[in-house]
Amino acid sequence: MATEEASSGLVFHPMDQFIVKPLFGEGPIHWYTPTNATLWMALTVLAIVALLVWGTRGRAVVPTRTQSVAELAYGFVHKMVVDVTGKDGLKYFPYIFTLFLFIVFANFLGLLPKSFSTTSHVAVTAVLALLVFCTVTAIGFIKHGAHFLELFWVSSAPLGLRPVLAVIEVISYFVRPLSHSIRLVGNVMAGHAVIKVFAAFAAVAVISPLSIVAISAMYGLEVLVSFIQAYVFTILTCVYLRDALHPHH
Amino acid sequence: MANETHDAANGAAQGAAHAAESAGMPQLDFSTFPNQIFWLLVTLGAIWWILTRIALPRISGVLADRQGAISGDLIAAEEFKLKAKEAEAAYDKALADARSEAQKIVAQARAEIQKELDAATAEADAQIEARAALSAKRIGEIRAGALEAVDAVAREAAADIVAALGGKADAGSVAAAVSARLKG
Protein backbone atom coordinates (compact mmCIF):
# COMPACT_ATOMS: atom_id res chain seq x y z
CA MET A 1 0.00 0.00 0.00
CA ALA A 2 2.72 2.43 1.04
CA THR A 3 4.87 1.63 -1.99
CA GLU A 4 1.86 1.95 -4.21
CA GLU A 5 1.11 5.41 -2.83
CA ALA A 6 4.71 6.45 -3.19
CA SER A 7 4.78 5.43 -6.79
CA SER A 8 1.45 6.81 -7.98
CA GLY A 9 0.63 9.62 -5.53
CA LEU A 10 -3.09 9.64 -4.76
CA VAL A 11 -4.69 6.25 -4.41
CA PHE A 12 -8.44 5.89 -4.36
CA HIS A 13 -9.94 2.70 -3.02
CA PRO A 14 -13.35 4.02 -1.97
CA MET A 15 -15.05 0.68 -2.59
CA ASP A 16 -12.55 -1.54 -0.74
CA GLN A 17 -14.46 -1.01 2.50
CA PHE A 18 -17.41 -2.89 1.06
CA ILE A 19 -15.53 -6.10 0.18
CA VAL A 20 -16.93 -9.16 1.90
CA LYS A 21 -14.07 -11.22 3.36
CA PRO A 22 -13.99 -14.42 5.37
CA LEU A 23 -13.35 -13.74 9.03
CA PHE A 24 -10.88 -16.60 9.44
CA GLY A 25 -8.19 -17.20 6.85
CA GLU A 26 -8.59 -17.04 3.10
CA GLY A 27 -10.64 -19.03 0.71
CA PRO A 28 -13.94 -19.13 -1.09
CA ILE A 29 -17.02 -17.71 0.55
CA HIS A 30 -19.65 -20.39 0.98
CA TRP A 31 -23.13 -19.55 2.18
CA TYR A 32 -22.20 -20.57 5.73
CA THR A 33 -18.73 -18.99 5.91
CA PRO A 34 -18.48 -16.48 8.79
CA THR A 35 -17.50 -13.23 7.09
CA ASN A 36 -17.09 -9.63 8.13
CA ALA A 37 -20.77 -9.24 7.22
CA THR A 38 -21.57 -11.98 9.75
CA LEU A 39 -19.49 -10.23 12.40
CA TRP A 40 -21.19 -6.85 11.97
CA MET A 41 -24.65 -8.39 11.81
CA ALA A 42 -23.85 -10.20 15.06
CA LEU A 43 -22.71 -6.89 16.57
CA THR A 44 -26.01 -5.38 15.44
CA VAL A 45 -27.87 -8.09 17.33
CA LEU A 46 -25.66 -7.50 20.38
CA ALA A 47 -26.33 -3.76 20.26
CA ILE A 48 -30.07 -4.39 20.07
CA VAL A 49 -29.84 -6.82 23.00
CA ALA A 50 -27.83 -4.23 24.95
CA LEU A 51 -30.43 -1.55 24.41
CA LEU A 52 -33.69 -3.47 24.58
CA VAL A 53 -32.88 -6.31 26.96
CA TRP A 54 -29.98 -5.19 29.12
CA GLY A 55 -31.24 -1.59 29.15
CA THR A 56 -34.68 -2.55 30.39
CA ARG A 57 -33.56 -5.18 32.94
CA GLY A 58 -34.74 -3.00 35.84
CA ARG A 59 -38.34 -2.84 34.50
CA ALA A 60 -38.44 0.45 36.36
CA VAL A 61 -41.61 2.51 36.43
CA VAL A 62 -39.34 5.55 36.57
CA PRO A 63 -36.92 4.57 33.79
CA THR A 64 -33.16 4.82 33.72
CA ARG A 65 -31.54 6.60 30.79
CA THR A 66 -31.00 3.46 28.73
CA GLN A 67 -34.46 2.20 29.48
CA SER A 68 -36.03 5.46 28.39
CA VAL A 69 -34.11 5.28 25.10
CA ALA A 70 -35.45 1.75 24.59
CA GLU A 71 -38.97 2.93 25.42
CA LEU A 72 -38.51 5.87 23.07
CA ALA A 73 -37.57 3.53 20.20
CA TYR A 74 -40.53 1.30 21.03
CA GLY A 75 -42.90 4.25 21.22
CA PHE A 76 -41.52 5.78 18.04
CA VAL A 77 -42.16 2.71 15.88
CA HIS A 78 -45.36 1.78 17.73
CA LYS A 79 -46.83 5.22 17.06
CA MET A 80 -45.69 5.06 13.45
CA VAL A 81 -47.45 1.73 12.92
CA VAL A 82 -50.66 2.95 14.58
CA ASP A 83 -50.65 6.30 12.78
CA VAL A 84 -50.01 4.87 9.32
CA THR A 85 -51.71 1.47 9.31
CA GLY A 86 -54.21 1.85 12.12
CA LYS A 87 -54.81 -0.41 15.09
CA ASP A 88 -55.07 -3.59 13.00
CA GLY A 89 -51.48 -3.08 11.83
CA LEU A 90 -50.21 -3.61 15.39
CA LYS A 91 -50.19 -7.36 14.78
CA TYR A 92 -47.19 -6.81 12.51
CA PHE A 93 -45.46 -4.39 14.89
CA PRO A 94 -42.71 -6.87 16.00
CA TYR A 95 -41.83 -7.49 12.35
CA ILE A 96 -41.62 -3.76 11.53
CA PHE A 97 -39.73 -3.04 14.74
CA THR A 98 -37.23 -5.79 13.80
CA LEU A 99 -36.61 -4.15 10.42
CA PHE A 100 -36.26 -0.69 11.95
CA LEU A 101 -33.86 -1.83 14.67
CA PHE A 102 -31.72 -3.85 12.27
CA ILE A 103 -31.38 -0.99 9.79
CA VAL A 104 -30.81 1.76 12.32
CA PHE A 105 -28.19 -0.22 14.25
CA ALA A 106 -26.48 -1.53 11.12
CA ASN A 107 -26.29 2.02 9.77
CA PHE A 108 -24.88 3.46 12.98
CA LEU A 109 -22.41 0.59 13.50
CA GLY A 110 -21.33 1.08 9.89
CA LEU A 111 -20.31 4.62 10.79
CA LEU A 112 -17.63 3.36 13.16
CA PRO A 113 -14.16 3.66 11.64
CA LYS A 114 -12.89 0.36 10.21
CA SER A 115 -16.35 -1.13 10.38
CA PHE A 116 -18.31 -2.89 7.68
CA SER A 117 -21.72 -1.53 6.69
CA THR A 118 -24.05 -4.46 6.15
CA THR A 119 -26.74 -2.14 4.82
CA SER A 120 -24.42 -0.90 2.07
CA HIS A 121 -24.96 -4.17 0.21
CA VAL A 122 -27.69 -4.67 -2.32
CA ALA A 123 -27.98 -8.31 -1.27
CA VAL A 124 -29.02 -7.24 2.22
CA THR A 125 -31.38 -4.40 1.41
CA ALA A 126 -32.94 -6.29 -1.49
CA VAL A 127 -33.77 -9.18 0.82
CA LEU A 128 -35.22 -6.75 3.36
CA ALA A 129 -37.32 -5.06 0.67
CA LEU A 130 -38.40 -8.34 -0.93
CA LEU A 131 -39.42 -9.72 2.46
CA VAL A 132 -41.62 -6.69 2.95
CA PHE A 133 -42.98 -6.92 -0.60
CA CYS A 134 -43.79 -10.63 -0.39
CA THR A 135 -45.26 -10.42 3.11
CA VAL A 136 -47.40 -7.42 2.28
CA THR A 137 -48.66 -8.97 -0.95
CA ALA A 138 -49.43 -12.22 0.85
CA ILE A 139 -51.27 -10.37 3.62
CA GLY A 140 -53.25 -8.46 1.00
CA PHE A 141 -54.41 -11.61 -0.79
CA ILE A 142 -55.08 -13.54 2.42
CA LYS A 143 -57.13 -10.71 3.92
CA HIS A 144 -59.03 -9.61 0.85
CA GLY A 145 -58.63 -12.38 -1.75
CA ALA A 146 -59.25 -11.11 -5.26
CA HIS A 147 -60.53 -7.82 -3.86
CA PHE A 148 -56.91 -6.95 -3.15
CA LEU A 149 -56.60 -6.31 -6.90
CA GLU A 150 -58.93 -3.31 -6.44
CA LEU A 151 -55.80 -1.57 -5.19
CA PHE A 152 -54.88 -1.20 -8.86
CA TRP A 153 -58.34 -0.24 -10.03
CA VAL A 154 -58.76 3.42 -9.06
CA SER A 155 -62.53 3.61 -8.69
CA SER A 156 -62.50 7.34 -8.03
CA ALA A 157 -61.01 8.07 -11.48
CA PRO A 158 -63.08 8.47 -14.67
CA LEU A 159 -63.88 5.09 -16.24
CA GLY A 160 -61.81 5.79 -19.39
CA LEU A 161 -58.70 6.53 -17.36
CA ARG A 162 -58.93 3.50 -15.12
CA PRO A 163 -57.15 0.95 -17.38
CA VAL A 164 -54.28 3.38 -17.91
CA LEU A 165 -54.08 4.08 -14.19
CA ALA A 166 -54.23 0.36 -13.49
CA VAL A 167 -51.16 -0.25 -15.65
CA ILE A 168 -49.31 2.58 -13.89
CA GLU A 169 -50.40 1.28 -10.48
CA VAL A 170 -49.22 -2.24 -11.29
CA ILE A 171 -45.85 -1.00 -12.52
CA SER A 172 -45.39 1.23 -9.46
CA TYR A 173 -46.38 -1.65 -7.22
CA PHE A 174 -43.68 -3.89 -8.66
CA VAL A 175 -41.09 -1.10 -8.62
CA ARG A 176 -41.64 -0.73 -4.86
CA PRO A 177 -39.11 -3.34 -3.70
CA LEU A 178 -36.53 -1.91 -6.09
CA SER A 179 -36.88 1.70 -4.90
CA HIS A 180 -37.28 0.51 -1.34
CA SER A 181 -33.93 -1.29 -1.38
CA ILE A 182 -31.93 0.97 -3.71
CA ARG A 183 -32.82 4.05 -1.64
CA LEU A 184 -31.22 2.58 1.47
CA VAL A 185 -28.22 0.98 -0.17
CA GLY A 186 -27.52 4.04 -2.31
CA ASN A 187 -27.55 6.47 0.60
CA VAL A 188 -25.34 4.36 2.82
CA MET A 189 -22.89 3.34 0.10
CA ALA A 190 -22.56 6.83 -1.42
CA GLY A 191 -21.90 8.45 1.93
CA HIS A 192 -19.25 5.94 2.90
CA ALA A 193 -17.57 6.14 -0.52
CA VAL A 194 -17.50 9.95 -0.43
CA ILE A 195 -15.91 9.91 3.03
CA LYS A 196 -13.29 7.46 1.73
CA VAL A 197 -12.54 9.73 -1.24
CA PHE A 198 -12.06 12.72 1.03
CA ALA A 199 -9.86 10.56 3.24
CA ALA A 200 -7.64 9.78 0.25
CA PHE A 201 -7.27 13.51 -0.41
CA ALA A 202 -6.12 13.98 3.18
CA ALA A 203 -2.80 12.38 2.16
CA VAL A 204 -1.91 15.56 0.30
CA ALA A 205 -0.63 18.08 2.84
CA VAL A 206 -2.05 21.19 1.13
CA ILE A 207 -5.65 20.08 1.01
CA SER A 208 -5.67 17.88 4.07
CA PRO A 209 -7.28 20.48 6.42
CA LEU A 210 -10.06 21.02 3.91
CA SER A 211 -10.39 17.29 3.50
CA ILE A 212 -10.67 16.74 7.25
CA VAL A 213 -13.38 19.41 7.53
CA ALA A 214 -15.18 17.78 4.62
CA ILE A 215 -14.95 14.36 6.26
CA SER A 216 -16.36 15.75 9.50
CA ALA A 217 -19.21 17.42 7.66
CA MET A 218 -19.96 14.29 5.66
CA TYR A 219 -19.83 12.24 8.81
CA GLY A 220 -22.42 14.50 10.44
CA LEU A 221 -24.60 14.19 7.39
CA GLU A 222 -24.18 10.43 7.42
CA VAL A 223 -25.32 10.23 11.04
CA LEU A 224 -28.46 12.03 9.97
CA VAL A 225 -28.86 9.87 6.87
CA SER A 226 -28.40 6.68 8.90
CA PHE A 227 -31.40 7.48 11.02
CA ILE A 228 -33.50 9.04 8.28
CA GLN A 229 -33.04 6.07 5.94
CA ALA A 230 -34.05 3.66 8.68
CA TYR A 231 -37.08 5.84 9.35
CA VAL A 232 -37.95 6.06 5.65
CA PHE A 233 -37.61 2.31 5.18
CA THR A 234 -39.84 1.66 8.17
CA ILE A 235 -42.53 4.19 7.29
CA LEU A 236 -42.65 2.92 3.70
CA THR A 237 -43.09 -0.59 5.08
CA CYS A 238 -46.02 0.77 7.11
CA VAL A 239 -47.47 2.46 4.04
CA TYR A 240 -47.26 -0.75 2.01
CA LEU A 241 -48.81 -2.65 4.88
CA ARG A 242 -51.66 -0.16 5.01
CA ASP A 243 -52.28 -0.73 1.31
CA ALA A 244 -52.49 -4.45 2.00
CA LEU A 245 -54.81 -4.03 5.00
CA HIS A 246 -57.03 -1.38 3.41
CA PRO A 247 -56.68 -1.71 -0.38
CA HIS A 248 -59.59 0.62 -1.13
CA HIS A 249 -58.42 4.09 -1.95
CA MET B 1 -9.31 -33.20 -23.38
CA ALA B 2 -12.81 -31.75 -23.40
CA ASN B 3 -12.71 -31.67 -19.61
CA GLU B 4 -9.44 -29.81 -19.59
CA THR B 5 -10.72 -27.10 -21.93
CA HIS B 6 -13.85 -26.84 -19.84
CA ASP B 7 -11.78 -26.36 -16.68
CA ALA B 8 -9.59 -23.84 -18.41
CA ALA B 9 -12.64 -21.90 -19.58
CA ASN B 10 -14.03 -22.02 -16.06
CA GLY B 11 -10.80 -20.76 -14.61
CA ALA B 12 -10.64 -17.95 -17.11
CA ALA B 13 -14.19 -16.96 -16.33
CA GLN B 14 -13.45 -16.96 -12.62
CA GLY B 15 -10.35 -14.90 -13.16
CA ALA B 16 -12.33 -12.40 -15.21
CA ALA B 17 -14.99 -12.22 -12.51
CA HIS B 18 -12.35 -11.58 -9.86
CA ALA B 19 -10.80 -8.87 -12.00
CA ALA B 20 -14.18 -7.25 -12.48
CA GLU B 21 -14.94 -7.40 -8.79
CA SER B 22 -11.66 -5.86 -7.74
CA ALA B 23 -12.20 -3.04 -10.20
CA GLY B 24 -15.94 -2.54 -9.71
CA MET B 25 -18.43 -2.63 -6.91
CA PRO B 26 -18.14 -5.37 -4.28
CA GLN B 27 -21.92 -5.03 -3.99
CA LEU B 28 -22.25 -6.71 -7.38
CA ASP B 29 -20.01 -9.65 -6.51
CA PHE B 30 -22.73 -12.26 -6.69
CA SER B 31 -20.52 -14.94 -5.13
CA THR B 32 -21.03 -13.30 -1.72
CA PHE B 33 -24.82 -13.07 -2.06
CA PRO B 34 -25.78 -16.45 -0.59
CA ASN B 35 -23.52 -15.79 2.35
CA GLN B 36 -24.96 -12.36 3.06
CA ILE B 37 -28.54 -13.48 2.57
CA PHE B 38 -28.07 -16.48 4.86
CA TRP B 39 -26.53 -14.45 7.64
CA LEU B 40 -29.09 -11.65 7.20
CA LEU B 41 -31.95 -14.11 7.65
CA VAL B 42 -30.23 -15.54 10.73
CA THR B 43 -29.79 -12.01 12.10
CA LEU B 44 -33.37 -10.97 11.44
CA GLY B 45 -34.60 -14.21 12.99
CA ALA B 46 -32.46 -13.60 16.06
CA ILE B 47 -33.68 -10.02 16.45
CA TRP B 48 -37.29 -11.06 15.92
CA TRP B 49 -36.94 -13.85 18.49
CA ILE B 50 -35.37 -11.54 21.06
CA LEU B 51 -38.02 -8.89 20.50
CA THR B 52 -41.05 -11.15 20.70
CA ARG B 53 -39.73 -13.32 23.55
CA ILE B 54 -38.08 -10.77 25.81
CA ALA B 55 -37.94 -7.13 24.81
CA LEU B 56 -41.44 -6.29 23.59
CA PRO B 57 -43.42 -7.98 26.40
CA ARG B 58 -41.13 -6.38 28.93
CA ILE B 59 -41.33 -2.87 27.50
CA SER B 60 -45.08 -2.99 26.90
CA GLY B 61 -45.48 -4.33 30.44
CA VAL B 62 -43.44 -1.45 31.85
CA LEU B 63 -45.42 1.07 29.82
CA ALA B 64 -48.72 -0.45 30.94
CA ASP B 65 -47.54 -0.45 34.56
CA ARG B 66 -46.58 3.19 34.26
CA GLN B 67 -49.91 4.06 32.68
CA GLY B 68 -51.67 2.15 35.44
CA ALA B 69 -49.62 3.87 38.13
CA ILE B 70 -50.30 7.29 36.66
CA SER B 71 -54.04 6.77 36.28
CA GLY B 72 -54.18 5.14 39.73
CA ASP B 73 -52.42 8.13 41.23
CA LEU B 74 -54.78 10.49 39.43
CA ILE B 75 -57.81 8.60 40.80
CA ALA B 76 -56.29 8.65 44.28
CA ALA B 77 -55.65 12.38 43.96
CA GLU B 78 -59.27 12.90 42.92
CA GLU B 79 -60.40 10.90 45.96
CA PHE B 80 -58.19 12.93 48.26
CA LYS B 81 -59.58 16.12 46.78
CA LEU B 82 -63.13 14.92 47.45
CA LYS B 83 -62.16 13.97 51.00
CA ALA B 84 -60.60 17.39 51.53
CA LYS B 85 -63.81 19.03 50.30
CA GLU B 86 -65.88 16.88 52.63
CA ALA B 87 -63.60 17.74 55.52
CA GLU B 88 -63.91 21.42 54.70
CA ALA B 89 -67.71 21.17 54.62
CA ALA B 90 -67.71 19.33 57.94
CA TYR B 91 -65.42 21.95 59.42
CA ASP B 92 -67.66 24.76 58.19
CA LYS B 93 -70.70 23.01 59.60
CA ALA B 94 -69.01 22.47 62.96
CA LEU B 95 -68.01 26.10 63.03
CA ALA B 96 -71.56 27.26 62.28
CA ASP B 97 -72.95 24.87 64.92
CA ALA B 98 -70.48 26.11 67.49
CA ARG B 99 -71.37 29.70 66.69
CA SER B 100 -75.13 29.14 67.05
CA GLU B 101 -74.52 27.14 70.25
CA ALA B 102 -72.47 29.99 71.60
CA GLN B 103 -75.22 32.44 70.76
CA LYS B 104 -77.77 30.23 72.49
CA ILE B 105 -75.58 30.03 75.57
CA VAL B 106 -75.10 33.78 75.55
CA ALA B 107 -78.84 34.38 75.28
CA GLN B 108 -79.53 31.91 78.07
CA ALA B 109 -76.94 33.49 80.29
CA ARG B 110 -78.31 36.90 79.55
CA ALA B 111 -81.85 35.75 80.46
CA GLU B 112 -80.63 34.19 83.69
CA ILE B 113 -78.73 37.26 84.64
CA GLN B 114 -81.75 39.40 83.81
CA LYS B 115 -83.92 37.21 86.00
CA GLU B 116 -81.49 37.42 88.89
CA LEU B 117 -81.17 41.11 88.36
CA ASP B 118 -84.95 41.52 88.38
CA ALA B 119 -85.25 39.49 91.57
CA ALA B 120 -82.49 41.44 93.23
CA THR B 121 -84.07 44.71 92.13
CA ALA B 122 -87.45 43.64 93.49
CA GLU B 123 -85.91 42.59 96.77
CA ALA B 124 -84.02 45.80 97.00
CA ASP B 125 -87.19 47.74 96.25
CA ALA B 126 -89.05 45.83 98.96
CA GLN B 127 -86.28 46.45 101.44
CA ILE B 128 -86.19 50.10 100.52
CA GLU B 129 -89.94 50.31 100.96
CA ALA B 130 -89.77 48.54 104.32
CA ARG B 131 -87.02 50.83 105.44
CA ALA B 132 -88.88 53.85 104.17
CA ALA B 133 -91.98 52.77 106.10
CA LEU B 134 -89.92 52.18 109.20
CA SER B 135 -88.32 55.56 108.78
CA ALA B 136 -91.69 57.23 108.26
CA LYS B 137 -92.98 55.55 111.38
CA ARG B 138 -89.99 56.72 113.34
CA ILE B 139 -90.30 60.19 111.93
CA GLY B 140 -93.96 60.17 112.99
CA GLU B 141 -93.00 58.89 116.43
CA ILE B 142 -90.29 61.51 116.67
CA ARG B 143 -92.68 64.20 115.50
CA ALA B 144 -95.29 63.06 118.03
CA GLY B 145 -92.61 62.93 120.71
CA ALA B 146 -91.54 66.41 119.74
CA LEU B 147 -95.07 67.75 119.92
CA GLU B 148 -95.56 66.19 123.34
CA ALA B 149 -92.24 67.66 124.41
CA VAL B 150 -93.29 71.07 123.06
CA ASP B 151 -96.55 70.69 124.93
CA ALA B 152 -94.83 69.82 128.14
CA VAL B 153 -92.22 72.54 127.74
CA ALA B 154 -94.86 75.09 126.91
CA ARG B 155 -96.91 74.04 129.91
CA GLU B 156 -93.93 74.21 132.23
CA ALA B 157 -92.85 77.46 130.68
CA ALA B 158 -96.38 78.88 131.03
CA ALA B 159 -96.62 77.71 134.67
CA ASP B 160 -93.19 79.20 135.37
CA ILE B 161 -94.12 82.46 133.66
CA VAL B 162 -97.41 82.60 135.71
CA ALA B 163 -95.47 81.87 138.86
CA ALA B 164 -92.91 84.53 137.98
CA LEU B 165 -95.68 87.09 137.51
CA GLY B 166 -96.82 86.27 140.92
CA GLY B 167 -99.90 84.40 140.06
CA LYS B 168 -100.89 81.11 141.27
CA ALA B 169 -101.73 78.86 138.51
CA ASP B 170 -103.22 75.52 138.97
CA ALA B 171 -101.89 72.89 136.58
CA GLY B 172 -105.28 72.13 135.04
CA SER B 173 -106.12 75.59 133.82
CA VAL B 174 -102.57 76.20 132.51
CA ALA B 175 -102.62 72.96 130.48
CA ALA B 176 -106.01 73.81 129.02
CA ALA B 177 -104.84 77.30 128.09
CA VAL B 178 -101.60 76.02 126.53
CA SER B 179 -103.27 73.31 124.53
CA ALA B 180 -105.85 75.84 123.36
CA ARG B 181 -103.10 78.17 122.31
CA LEU B 182 -101.11 75.39 120.59
CA LYS B 183 -104.10 74.27 118.61
CA GLY B 184 -104.85 77.89 117.87
From TrEMBL, chain B:
<dbReference type="GO" id="GO:0046933">
    <property type="term" value="F:proton-transporting ATP synthase activity, rotational mechanism"/>
</dbReference>
<keyword id="KW-0138">CF(0)</keyword>
<dbReference type="InterPro" id="IPR050059">
    <property type="entry name" value="ATP_synthase_B_chain"/>
</dbReference>
<comment type="similarity">
    <text>Belongs to the ATPase B chain family.</text>
</comment>
<keyword id="KW-0375">Hydrogen ion transport</keyword>
<feature type="transmembrane region" description="Helical">
    <location>
        <begin position="37"/>
        <end position="56"/>
    </location>
</feature>
<keyword id="KW-0406">Ion transport</keyword>
<keyword id="KW-1133">Transmembrane helix</keyword>
<keyword id="KW-1003">Cell membrane</keyword>
<dbReference type="GO" id="GO:0012505">
    <property type="term" value="C:endomembrane system"/>
</dbReference>
<keyword id="KW-0813">Transport</keyword>
<dbReference type="Pfam" id="PF00430">
    <property type="entry name" value="ATP-synt_B"/>
</dbReference>
<dbReference type="InterPro" id="IPR002146">
    <property type="entry name" value="ATP_synth_b/b'su_bac/chlpt"/>
</dbReference>
<dbReference type="GO" id="GO:0045259">
    <property type="term" value="C:proton-transporting ATP synthase complex"/>
</dbReference>
<comment type="function">
    <text>F(1)F(0) ATP synthase produces ATP from ADP in the presence of a proton or sodium gradient. F-type ATPases consist of two structural domains, F(1) containing the extramembraneous catalytic core and F(0) containing the membrane proton channel, linked together by a central stalk and a peripheral stalk. During catalysis, ATP synthesis in the catalytic domain of F(1) is coupled via a rotary mechanism of the central stalk subunits to proton translocation.</text>
</comment>
<keyword id="KW-0472">Membrane</keyword>
<keyword id="KW-0378">Hydrolase</keyword>
<keyword id="KW-0066">ATP synthesis</keyword>
<dbReference type="GO" id="GO:0005886">
    <property type="term" value="C:plasma membrane"/>
</dbReference>
<keyword id="KW-0812">Transmembrane</keyword>
<dbReference type="GO" id="GO:0046961">
    <property type="term" value="F:proton-transporting ATPase activity, rotational mechanism"/>
</dbReference>
<feature type="coiled-coil region">
    <location>
        <begin position="77"/>
        <end position="130"/>
    </location>
</feature>
<dbReference type="GO" id="GO:0016787">
    <property type="term" value="F:hydrolase activity"/>
</dbReference>
<keyword id="KW-0175">Coiled coil</keyword>
<comment type="function">
    <text>Component of the F(0) channel, it forms part of the peripheral stalk, linking F(1) to F(0). The b'-subunit is a diverged and duplicated form of b found in plants and photosynthetic bacteria.</text>
</comment>
<protein>
    <recommendedName>
        <fullName>ATP synthase subunit b</fullName>
    </recommendedName>
</protein>
<comment type="subunit">
    <text>F-type ATPases have 2 components, F(1) - the catalytic core - and F(0) - the membrane proton channel. F(1) has five subunits: alpha(3), beta(3), gamma(1), delta(1), epsilon(1). F(0) has three main subunits: a(1), b(2) and c(10-14). The alpha and beta chains form an alternating ring which encloses part of the gamma chain. F(1) is attached to F(0) by a central stalk formed by the gamma and epsilon chains, while a peripheral stalk is formed by the delta and b chains.</text>
</comment>
